């Protein structure tokens, strides 16, 4: 019964994150230890994400800067919370880092990105699902590859490699071809997982 309720909370929270979409939000399901987050907002008691009327209020509160923390039973524990733990997520900013970091502490983080319109689900520090909030479809391998290629870090690496090959072409071309190919293939495989 408890697991079924938590699954229901996860589905409803995911649906809410998709509906919030490009406004940007971070939902945390499961209340991590207080040392990993803080809020200066007063708790609003009795709001439950499983209740449709309460859910409308929770979605509006989720648009406030910070995380909305939802207990496993659906009760909102906090909103506007500052996450004190982080894990680097290549090509993304602080909110993604906070989602990855807090998900390492007995919780699931669901993030809707205002930059690219994707909703990402983090568990144990890793992104386990990406959903296009507009189409409500999971990201395909082609979309993941396109996002990887359009990543600013990859563009900078490519531009640096081209510039280096122009300056010292006879010495660097074999090196760049080998390392660039290895890097691209390795990152592509990781991006598609």
Detailed description of the structure:
The chain is of the alpha+beta class. The protein folds into two domains: 2-137, YojJ-like (1; 141-192. The protein has helices spanning 2-20, 52-62, 94-102, 141-149, 152-167, 169-192, and strands at 25-29, 37-38, 67-70, 76-83, 108-112, 118-123, 126-132, 137-138. Strands 2-4-3-1-5-6-7-8 form an eight-stranded mixed beta sheet, sandwiched between helices. A hairpin with a 5-residue loop joins strand 5 and strand 6. Helix 4 (141-149) packs antiparallel against helix 6. The longest helix is centred in the C-terminal third of the chain and has 24 residues, at 169-192. It is elongated. The relative contact order is 0.13.
Please name the defining characteristics of this protein:
193 residues; alpha+beta; YojJ-like (1; 2 domains; 8-stranded mixed β-sheet; 6 helices; 46% helix; 20% strand
Low-confidence stretches: none
- Architecture of the largest domain in CATH? 3-Layer(aba) Sandwich
Q: What share of residues are in beta strands?
A: 15-25%
Trace the largest sheet across and list its strands: 2-4-3-1-5-6-7-8
Radius of gyration (CA) equals 20 Å
So what's the overall shape? elongated
